[in-house]
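[09:14] KT: can someone run the structure on this one? pasting the chain below
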Amino acid sequence: MRAGLFPGALWIRQGGTEVALPTAEDGGMPGLMPSLDVLVASCRRGGGAGAGVDLLVSDSIARNVMLPWQEAPLTPVQEHAYAQACLERAGVDLAAGWTLHSGFRHYGQVGLAVAVPTAWLDDARGRFAAAGLRLRRVTPVTAAAYWATPGGIGRAPGLLLLAEPGRITAVQQQGGRFSGLDVEPAGADPALALRRLLNRTRAAGLALAGLPVAETPVTVQLWQARPGLIDRALLARELPAARIRELAPGAWSK
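[09:31] RB: done, structure tokens below
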């Protein structure tokens, strides 16, 4: 059984059917727990005792950093230490209690390190266990996108936008593979947040603005935790040369 949890969108997938449930806005990790309880109850009704659940969670509770490729082979211990160093360099205080996962999906390309608060994982695992369910896997949105990049990009430069309440994540892609990661808070003015994020993306070297598609055939894939988080018309004006493709909310839950 696969389940999705977001500050403003919550769903479970059972037998190919997506069931939407209302939730409150993000109130931090404690604010997600009432939504998690609703999800646990729904999963309990949909599965038998001991059923396993894969949980897709908001990036708001996780920390993600890209791992530059290392030419020298890394042992599992060395890779873990390398991921720790990259997270700490990004300001994550691992001493505060984080569970870390890292990996490289493609040889010679950037990897991804993901940290989720251990206390949150233990709490979530306990809530599912109390309902007779097994929490098998917890995957933040960016990590899900990294390990399951959708097709249709080809070798052209690409941009994957992941929109959640309060944040927009931009993932740069080259040849269908991740090449960069940036995040912008989206508070009272989501349009301003989108412009800032795209400006930084352009400055980072992904040529997106004002160039003919024939010269720079950019594909922009847009994923939204719920409809309306990104103004499609604004996105089209900001990226006039781009082909914009919207992904289904459950794209990472399949």
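[09:33] KT: thanks! The chain has six helices and 13 strands.
[09:34] RB: yep, looked fine to me
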